[in-house]
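Sample entry (863 residues):
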Amino acid sequence: MTNSKGESTSALYGFIRSLQKLQKDFSPKYLIAVFDGPDNKKSRQALYAEYKMNRKKAPQDLYDQIPWAISFCEWAGIPVLSISGVEADDTIATITKRFEKDFEIFICSGDKDLYQLVSDHVFVLHTHKDNLVVNAPKVEEIFGVKPAQMLDLLSLMGDASDNIPGVEGIGPKSASELLQKMGSLDEILAHPEKLSGKKQMGIIEQKEMALLSRQLATLDCQVEIPKEKGLYTLKEPSLLKLKEFYREMKFMSFLGNLEQTLQKNPSEQEVVSYQLIKTKEELDRLIHRLLKESDIAIDTETTDVNALLAKLVGIGFCVRPKEAFYIPCHGPMDREVVLEALRNFFAASKASFCGHNIKYDLHVLENEKIYVRNIGFDTILASYVLSPQNRQHNLDRLVLEKFNVVKIPIESLIKVGKKTISMDEVSIEKVSAYCCEDVDYTCRLKKLFAEDLKKEELEKVFYQIEIPLLPVLARMETRGIFIDKDFFSKLQVEFSSELHRLEKAIYVDVGEEFNINSPKQMGEILYHKLQLPLPKNKTLGFSTAASVLEKLAEASPVVQKILDYRGLQKLLSTYIEPLPLEIHPKTHRIHANFNQSATATGRLSCQDPNLQNIPVRSKEGQRIREGFRPQKEGWSYLSADYSQIELRLLAHFSEDPELLHAFHTGQDIHAYTASLIYGVTLESVTKEMRHSAKAVNFGILYGQGPFGLSEQLGITTKEAALFIQTYFARYKKIEPFLDKCKKEAEERGYSLTLTGRKRPLPELHNQNAQIRSAAQRLAMNTPLQGTAADIIKLAMIEVDKELDKKKYEGYMILQIHDELLFEIPDTEIEAFRDLVSEKMVKIFSLQVPLEVDIAIGKNWGEC
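Predicted structure, serialized as tokens:
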């Protein structure tokens, strides 16, 4: 998580959320947040120079968030203590001892040191474990000793996190057993003869280390702290300062909750005119008025989030801010009378219509045979074009962010969970107020965003790409795609049978049955029973992640079977089983949703279901694609796929002569690259050479370094570094181009595509090297991937326009990144082949030719 400046805020967010939960769950009168003071380790390091020295330094961006956390406490009315030269644990211990006779004290911490403070009036509270309250019996249950013995336990077993040494050879279990038997550390040190073997020798030889460990683990309860109870009392929060702070940090959920509190004063509520249309006379007057307008915002209320299954409950209209109208389709007026009036209005209106995610409204209205002809604006798309780095563009969030207003929550109307009701069951007055507010703020956002698009020079991207594409996608969603239900049933049997066979084979290989889906059991089998080598990266531990197992596949044949098992299982659960359930009851087709506002690069995403991620190159993925076929006899699929479009864009942007030459002369770019890198003729390039060259060709596009390439090709990092070095030596202009992309993005604050689309990258200035490095990769890739995304969008608009003009029967049904899929009658194959290829190739002029691969098939697999 980052704020608008690209600074990390994740730790701060977690801190605030924890404190708010604490206050909500316990409603304390007294609460204090304790931080380490500066130079806090010095006193213990004077005793033991190694104290906390082995603790890995936290990332700098964590330290940067601590002052913000302290500021939050100040504005939230939470007292703070941070005493110079003192660790937080010692401050907490002093507070505890000072006030334990006056209060019940709850210490919210996971630090083992603090359990020694537990008493009849002092408890440790685990907020992350469902508010587990640890009292004295619970301490004994967890550690095997009483709270008074916790200091001695730490002295014996040590504490790796603080580098407290303890006694070598004595762990938690043996330390607690010794204390249960002998009572205290002093007693153990005084009578080592009562011990046997290594324990006795350890105690005798390391007596001084045990005593030093006790000194290090002893909490200082004599810190100078404020003694007045009032200083520990929660104060009234400074709501306006908190509001500004949340806005600056982009904590919209916190801001929303705060705004609800601030808006409780009715005198501060804005005066608006929202009208519920109840009679035919009022309806006629409104429609007469609306027919004179040139720009109208609309919003539908419906029975279902699935647009193609939804029924219209009512519709809202707004022409100017603060004035809105709601027409219900049930209740005071006859439903068919209302629908017919709406059909006539939209057929006659010459207005430009606006909505928030208006594609949904188009579908809902079309379900009622109401057709909207002119779409002029969509506020969700405007928000996305202006701020593609934001993950959310929903109306509630935007209204809060832009107008400091918390809208009526949908939950207040339809409830949540098992008590959820449909919108047509809610009172018309409530729905009217909700809908009018929605359409009013859509109208206000349109005015705001239209100005911002102009100021940011993003009008071309918005008005020439995103808005014209919207109705194209709506038509694709309406048409859907047909799947052969019987084929999928057979596929389910086929894949389930193979899954069962693999399961049995895995059990035979390991010599026992276990839960293949349990990472814990899998880890036990692979690393303990089969003794497979642990990953070199120690943080991975007994990992069973696919990336780890792929490296282990050569060490044991069972690992490849496990990977095959997982792959099959994923295909079954993601596609083969659920896809037939997505078939629409009336059309008998699947209707996916193409989302224009989901990816920061400008690419479309496909949802409910996602048809873009079905594997292309595996035989299992091919089998699934065979289940997609035209619904009518005598029809085929035509697939049109841009050939290596991002590499062609790399040639255009970098103007590298070798890359330009390769594309102008129609070379196999991967073989050509291999010939350059290996210094051989094109005829001498082997399959393996081409594979390596392909990996580096595409890796370069995504800022892949030597480590990533070495992992992909199974070579050393040194060899991969040399490979990349040679690549840049052969294609001399590529590295300078990539460096230029990073530099310009750092200077401007955003990356830019050929079409003018911007991707803000504030993380380029983040102090965390990992976050900064990821942003640099995006700066290099966005001009390529973002431009490619816009080129295919422009092609879709142009192809759709031409198909409509020529009145062809065939139509576009899918977009999969650089590929378009069409369902066409066989009689139109040649015409389609020429039209689609020509429009896609000529849609954008580059320094190298665009090429399109056309494939025809009786199912998607054949394409």
